[in-house]
């Protein structure tokens, strides 16, 4: 099996993460269970910070909290010196509740509501990443109402098509996000933003997509953004103190995935920036990035209990687990691939091929097609690896299934950071009008 971070197989043949035997975690917290290897999260955060320090440039590494937003994660990001990217009032609220410094929060999104903008203005966050002309006008007006002048970056689409799934690629011209550079919209946005009294234009932002392995897309995006900055200086006499190059750095989900070390991505980006600005007597801007998946993705494991199975001789054997697309929608959405291991017999040879199905009423609810496992039995624990990003954060209550607990593990200790939803949570926001009430309803 793929052992990474603090994962190990202990003397009993059980998978261990952060020094905790996962069979014990299952007893203590139940399944399904999200387990986060805190040491690995912190290590990834430090890899970014160290690589930027080595570049000699000024920087901010903003953790993209959409990948996994819970208060404990915000606290870790804060302790590791990261900034935070949020895209909704919910993510902003989570960060503020965790005591994350507002000045290090950046607010993204292509349709921020007036209420969300006001909430962020009241919190005095560090920067708004403005996505379109409507938002420029709205933000300027709302900031003016409060007598504030706020920092903004303009999100631009530099015309780079990343080699990734169509649904998670964002830097091309035909995207719902940002001001297009090619058509001149980005240039007009700079001119407009620069003239608005309640906005302080820091620079531009570009994010070309997600789960990208090659550095060339990032290098091209960095160069295009830099060339745009030079054009803006020449034509409008405006210089950018900040350039944000987004996130998107890939991780290993399955054998054959070939992510580069974090330092390699950072080196590619910072070199492209230095090359483009260095010769043009332009003060090299501060570089911001927004990694999400590459901070938390491979630190997460989802632990399930195997229930039923179905053998269709000569066709396929299914095993079903006590979760599924409700806790991990990525296989159904993007045909994402995962690896798994029988956690209570982690050292055994994986010589059986099965399809891991979830428990939702949906034929497409398959977590792993043709998964190699040691012969699975009812009651075994199945650990699906590298589920730290876009799993808990994209979980749903489809079929009224309760969202699992989340535990952080480190040095043989586990901390519950999200409680499993209760059945009362499931009906917590339901309202049964009096005229529909039955005396016999369950209390
Ligand atoms: C604007 C923006 N920044 C950062 C991210 C984080 O991307 P990733 O998790 O791939 O690093 C995303 C998601 O793709 C995004 O849309
Ligand atoms: N949610 C996606 C990535 C999109 C990230 C947000 N721009 C995933 O699971 O891979």
UniProtKB/TrEMBL annotation:
The keyword Acetylation does not apply. Its EC number is 4.1.1.20. Substrate binds at residues 293, 330, 334, 362, 390. The keyword Transmembrane helix does not apply. It catalyses: meso-2,6-diaminopimelate + H(+) = L-lysine + CO2. Keywords: Amino-acid biosynthesis, Decarboxylase, Lyase, Lysine biosynthesis, Pyridoxal phosphate. Residues 41-296 form the Orn/DAP/Arg decarboxylase 2 N-terminal domain. GO terms for molecular function: diaminopimelate decarboxylase activity. Pyridoxal 5'-phosphate binds at residues 248, 290-293, 390. Specifically catalyzes the decarboxylation of meso-diaminopimelate (meso-DAP) to L-lysine. This is Diaminopimelate decarboxylase. It comes from Paenibacillus aurantiacus. The lineage of its organism: Bacteria, Bacillati, Bacillota, Bacilli, Bacillales.
């Amino acid at each position: 099996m793929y052992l990474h971070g603090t994962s190990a197989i202990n003397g009993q043949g059980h998978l261990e993460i952060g020094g905790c035997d996962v069979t014990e975690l299952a007893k203590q917290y139940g399944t399904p269970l999200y387990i986060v290897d805190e040491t690995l999260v912190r290590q990834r955060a430090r890899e970014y910070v160290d690589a930027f320090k080595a570049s000699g440039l000024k920087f901010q590494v903003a953790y993209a909290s959409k990948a996994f937003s819970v208060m404990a994660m915000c606290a870790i990001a804060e302790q590791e010196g990261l900034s935070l990217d949020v895209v909704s009032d919910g993510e902003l609220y989570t960060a503020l509740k965790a005591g994350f410094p507002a000045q290090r929060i950046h607010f993204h999104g292509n349709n921020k509501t007036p209420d969300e903008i006001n909430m962020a203005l009241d919190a005095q966050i560090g920067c708004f990443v403005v996505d379109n002309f409507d938002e420029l006008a709205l933000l300027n007006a709302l900031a003016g109402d409060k007598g504030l002048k706020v920092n903004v970056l303009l999100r631009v689409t530099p015309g780079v098509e990343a080699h990734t799934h169509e649904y998670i690629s964002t830097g091309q011209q035909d995207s719902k996000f940002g001001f297009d550079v090619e058509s001149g919209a980005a240039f007009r946005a700079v001119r407009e933003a620069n003239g608005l009294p309640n906005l302080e234009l820091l620079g531009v932002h570009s994010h070309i997509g997600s789960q990208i392995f090659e550095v060339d897309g990032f290098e091209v995006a960095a160069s295009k953004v830099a060339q745009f900055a030079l054009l803006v200086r020449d034509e409008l006499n405006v210089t950018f103190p900040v350039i944000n190059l987004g996130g998107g750095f890939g991780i290993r989900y399955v054998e054959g995935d070939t992510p580069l070390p974090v330092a390699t991505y950072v080196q590619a980006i910072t070199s492209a920036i230095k090359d483009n600005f260095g010769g043009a007597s332009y003060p090299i801007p501060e570089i911001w990035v927004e990694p999400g998946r590459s901070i938390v993705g491979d630190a997460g494991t989802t632990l399930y209990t195997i229930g039923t199975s179905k053998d269709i001789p000569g066709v396929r054997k299914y095993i079903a687990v006590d979760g599924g697309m409700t806790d991990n929608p990525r296989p159904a959405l993007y045909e994402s691939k995962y690896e798994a291991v029988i956690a209570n017999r982690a050292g055994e040879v994986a010589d059986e091929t099965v399809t891991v199905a979830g428990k939702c009423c949906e034929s497409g609810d398959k977590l792993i097609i043709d998964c190699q496992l040691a012969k699975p039995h009812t009651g075994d624990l199945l650990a699906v690896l590298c589920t730290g990003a876009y799993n808990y954060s994209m979980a749903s209550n489809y079929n009224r299934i309760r969202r699992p607990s989340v535990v952080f593990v480190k040095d043989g200790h586990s901390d519950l950071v999200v409680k499993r939803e209760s059945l009362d949570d499931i009906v917590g926001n339901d309202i049964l009008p009096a005229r529909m009430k039955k005396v016999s309803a369950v209390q």
